[in-house]
């Protein structure tokens, strides 16, 4: 009880109100904590033997004491407050200097930003230009590859630039395209080489894919349609001669020739030739 209450009056008095125990005054340090919360603080006073009205009176007295201390503090330091206002004179000029400095810094930053944006746009333009040049180089290589393949096909098929067959090709057709009487790839002497026909067809289809990848509307590619058509007709002519010459006793050779027709998408032409063959 001694830590919560104190006794009023003199030691000689044995009775009366002053001899009754009173709650200790509210500790000032409890209000100075950074995490002070009124509700939490009041909840700690639930064991304080004091009426609500007495508690309000204590808090009101504490508030008046604080207000008086604040007033005394202002009165004691009144001259210092006045000198503080005098020391702030001329601050507008300093503020203006700072403002002008900030404006200058802002202009410098905007100038640097403008330069960076210009350089960035220039770099983007150069990157796009480089990308376009690389794309054109790839198209150029593809065009050269396509033209080289067309030339090799024309040379191998002995097709002239005007689309006609050379005399050597005509003679080769008459003798079955046998090379100096040598046997063909499948052992049939005097027959057209199926491997050679297949190689021509694959080369033609590869060249056709290159042209489609470049774009059939590309001017140089569009001009090669005539050459491609003549090469295709020549391949189909050689395939037709080979299919007419194949023996019924050699179904493997016939299937290989028909597979070339299938790759070229010319099943109807193969069917027509088979129907026209003599039994």
Architecture overview:
- The chain contains ten helices and two strands.
- The protein is elongated, with a radius of gyration of 54 Å.
- It has helices at 38-43, 52-76, 78-87, 91-157, 167-174, 194-214, 219-223, 225-245, 251-264, 267-276; strands at 5-7, 21-23.
- Helix 6 packs antiparallel against helix 8 and helix 8 (225-245) packs antiparallel against helix 9.
- The longest helix is centred in the middle third of the chain and has 67 residues, at 91-157.
Question: Brief description of this entry?
Answer:
The chain has 279 residues and is mainly alpha-helical. Helix content is 67%, strand content 2%.
Label this structure with key terms.
single chain; 279 residues; mainly alpha; two-stranded antiparallel sheet; 10 helices; 2 strands; 67% helix; elongated
Order of helices and strands: EEHHHHHHHHHH
Q: Would you count the extended β strands for me?
A: 2
Alpha-beta classification: mainly alpha
Percent strand: under 5%
- Count of separate DSSP helical elements: 10
Largest sheet: 2 strands, antiparallel
Strand order of the largest sheet: 1-2
